[in-house]
Amino acid sequence: MSVLTRDEAQTRAQLLDVHHYRVDLDLTTGDETFHSRSLIRFTARAAGDTFVELKPETLHSALLDGEPLDIATLDGNRLALSLTEGEHTLRVSTTMRYSRTGEGMHRFKDPTDGESYVYTQLFMEDVQRVFAAFDQPDLKAVFELGVTAPEGWTVLSNGITEQQPDGRWKAAPTPLLSTYFVCVAAGPWHSVRTEHAGLPFGIHCRRSLAPHLDADADEILAVTRACYDRYHEKFDEPYPFDSYDQAFVPEFNAGAMENPGLVTFRDEFVFRSAVTVTERQTRAMVIAHEMAHMWFGDLVTLRWWDDIWLNESFAEYMGFQTVNEACSDLFPDTWVDFGVARKAWGYEADQRPSTHPVAPDPESVPDTASALLNFDGISYAKGASALRQLVAWLGEKDFLAGINIHFKRHKFGNATLADFIDNLAAATDRDVHGWADQWLRTTGVDTLTPRLDGAGTGWRLTVDRAGSRPHRISVGVYDRDPSGDLVLRERREIDVPQETPAELTGPRPALVVLNDEDLTYAKLRFDEVSEETALRGLSRIPDALTRAVVWNALRDMVRDGDLAPAEYLETALAHLPEETELALLQGVLGFARTQIADRYVTDDERPAALAKIGEIARALLRRTEDGEAPGLRLTAVRAFIDSATTPDKIASWLDEGTVHGGPELDPELRWRILARLAVLGAADEAVIAAELERDPSATGEEGAARCRAALPDPAAKAAAWSALFDTDDLSNYLFTATAQGFWQPEHTELVRAYVPRFYADAAALGARRGPAMAEAAGRYAFPSYAVDADSLALGESHLADDAVIPALRRKLVDQLDDLRRALAVRSA
Asked: Does 467 have pLDDT greater than 90?
């Protein structure tokens, strides 16, 4: 299959003006394929040759202006067209194949009740799996969809859908959309419908999840309404579509997709088991993120994929900020979670060999395959951090004024980064173009370090910068009170680089925290006194966001070899039992468990690291025995299970169906315990089968696959490997679950022979099953726990293999760099 190049897209955009698609889909033709017919009306501005894209199982016919085309000339995914100047119609009839990889038209059969569901995910090049199209973002058109669906199904689409007398469903014509935004979701959905601001709103899930959606419907709709109203306070342009539906769909690869009028979410956001307020907050942020795309992405769309970062960075920033503003009665400060979870993702991505500017050079995105590689922590977290810094420097009033100019000038059209910067510049006297060059066209992370000079009651603060970007930061200056608590003396904004040192009055502070409100994107270090205070007094810092900044700095110090992993764990043990902010607890425990215990300490040191995490969990369990902090207790229970080195305690919980003192075990906790017991050799196939009989859901099937692959048995490992790489039977989710179970730090010797097998098998899988599965293989099936020089050398030798598709190659580059870092941390 040919990928579309930027040059080809520009040439075709100059030639064509696409007006209208009529797409008819028949979903009643079987479980493997569906029928697709498309009628495209377009104008050729001059005579010329071009092509339309499609990836059919069978191409039945293609008629250009009523004349049949030779369908044997279909070359990969391209059907050639020779056009005269003027108006044209193209009719294409195909049979298309359903996907089980989350691309194109994905089909899912719910094991709970046997019901089937389909939905589209058409991002980048996957519209071609559903209907013929001129598939590039700057050829917008009106879409009219008709769908023939089995009896008892409901069809959702970008516009309001109605069932016709013949049983067929018809969707209202859309405004001008890019091809990748077209969406259909069909099946026997359970729906909760309401109305807000004169528009129909709906939330939808598969029937087996109905009780769980109903339990959360009030919260989901309250968040949706609050964010909708807040965006209308921020943006001058009204919501541009005729309805707002949110469908929680199975086996979804991403968190969500911003299809206009019909946002699709992974249905793990319909919580079957107990979750913390932080996890509910994450769902709210994703709702707000996708809604922001209705304006930035859908109303105004990128011209080419090099600007995809701007869509995602804007929605990421707006998602966190808008939930903070509109849902403060439901959730804590979202920027704490952003600082701990999302920014860490950005910092890691930006220090790898695969780093790229937030706004990549257009020449670095010559085609769709290369564009797909930029969906990473830089495009989301670093970009959002840059926008947050821009707002701190520019002021929110001018920022929103520039955004509204952007919407007004380009609504229902396409725009570039240059357009965006010009529109921001129109709202301010500041040099936005210069700021963009320094922040968006450069790579890497600056490091800021405080230096205090003086004595007595007069001190001068200088911020040393390793890097090139300007920063507007808040500096927090803290003293110790007689009880040992840290008290904010003052917080002041400064610009880095500084013209003159900042003058501090009073005695030498106990702690100086740069970027105290986390308004910029930079790694931080401490002066010598502040570092000691941070390590010994972290839990005495009054503000959760400041604690997040300090924990992030310690995390970076571990990753850079400047702080011993054991000292980080000692700091966690000293302070986490007193922590009240769940986002911090989850972030620090997650880093301690998955990075320090699993990768940064040696095999001999690992039991002690796990014991330390278990000690933290036990302290938190003791603290929450009164039942007044269920989210805190749930976090502690999860940490205790994941760090268990012996099976007895967690096995007793599983047998009794409850943790002593609560909570009772729900499906998530039961599968979590069973997975750990499998790793420890305290479970077998019979126990797994019994648990699956107890929970015969899709999540249960994933849990069983994970547990079976985690058994420390050569036959179980061989069966799991064969399922991953020898057949294409596993769906995207079952593949991921099996891969997650296969590699375990406890099983290093047992699976050592599979390390060299991974590279050839993953390359073959990527070539066979495409980029989504290649990315899954690189992320989840990579031998992450083989932390040794031989594994690193082996992996590096495979990077030159031409058989490795770009999506897999990018994951290998990142994984091998993480392996290189783990070796460096161990040696440090």
From this structure: yes
Q: Indicate the residue type of 287.
A: I
pLDDT at 801: 85
- The catalytic position among 125, 279, 290, 531 is 290
Q: What is the pLDDT of residue 524?
A: 98
Nearest 5°: phi and psi at 17? Answer: -125, 110
Q: Give CA–CA dist 154/186, Å, rounded.
A: 6
Instruction: Give the phi and the psi of residue 122 in degrees, each rounded to 5.
Output: -110, 20
CB atoms within 10 A of CB 354: 17
Tally of CB atoms within 10 A around 252: 23
Known catalytic membership, residue 348: no
Cβ(112)–Cβ(696) under 8 Å?
yes
Among 444, 445, 449, 395, smallest CA distance to 424 is for: 395
Q: Which residue do the tokens 């308004």 mark?
A: 519
DSSP 702-758: HHHHHHHHHSS-HHHHHHHHHHHHT-S-S-HHHHHHHHHHH--GGGTTTTTTHHHHH
Rounded Cα distance between 156 and 147, Å, is: 10
Q: Are strands 256-257 and 244-249 parallel, antiparallel or unpaired?
A: unpaired
Three-class secondary structure of residue 499 per DSSP: coil
The pLDDT tens digits for 775-794 are 999 999 999 999 999 999 99
Give the whole-angstrom CA distance, residue 536 versus residue 538: 6
The answer to whether residues 487 and 480 touch, using CB atoms and an 8 Å cutoff, is yes
Residue whose structure tokens are 């109303």: 299
Contact 250, 698 (CB under 8 A): yes
**Which is nearest to 138 in space by CA: 300, 367, 268?**
300
User: For the stretch 229-250, what's the b/e string if a residue is b when 16 or more beta carbons lie within 10 angstroms of its beta carbon?
Assistant: ebbeebbebebbbbbbbbbbbb
The rounded distance, in Å, linking the Cα atoms of 373 and 352 is: 14
Task: Extract the tokens encoding 38.
Answer: 């498309």
Choose among 107, 68, 103, 77: nearest CA to 4.
77
Measured at the CA of 787, the angle between CA 785 and CA 792, to 5 degrees, comes to: 115
How many residues in the chain? 828
pLDDT tens-digit map of 69-125: 999 999 999 999 999 999 999 999 999 999 999 999 999 999 999 999 999 999 989
Distance CA 153, CA 155 (A): 7
Rounded Cα gap, residues 378 and 740, in angstroms: 25
Residue type, 169: W
Token pair for residue 92?
């294409």
Distance between CA 393 and CA 561 in Å, rounded?
33
Torsion angles phi and psi, residue 16, rounded to 5: -110, 150
Bridging pattern class, strands 413-415 and 244-249: unpaired
Q: Is residue 627's pLDDT more than 90? A: no
Mean pLDDT, range 311-339, rounded to an integer: 96
Task: Note whether 519 and 474 are within 8 A (CB).
Answer: yes
Reference 521, options 385, 361, 319, 407; nearest CA is 385
Average pLDDT over residues 512-537: 97
CA atoms within 13 A on the CB side of 238: 6
Phi, psi of 777 (to 5 degrees): -65, -45
Where is 157: in which H helix or E strand?
A: strand 154-157
- Cα distances from 801 to residues 70, 359, 525, 764, 774, in angstroms, run 37, 29, 40, 11, 15
3-state secondary structure of 257: strand
Q: If you average pLDDT over residues 259-264, what whole number do you get?
A: 98
Count Cβ atoms below 10 Å from residue 483 Cβ, excluding itself.
7
Q: Identify which of 78, 59, 49, 66 has the alpha carbon closest to the alpha carbon of residue 136.
A: 78
pLDDT for the residue 800: 84
What gap in Å lies between CA 688 and CA 367, rounded to an integer?
Answer: 45
Mean pLDDT of 209-224: 98
User: 234 phi and psi, to 5 degrees?
Assistant: -85, -40
| Lookup result for tokens 């003052």 | 490
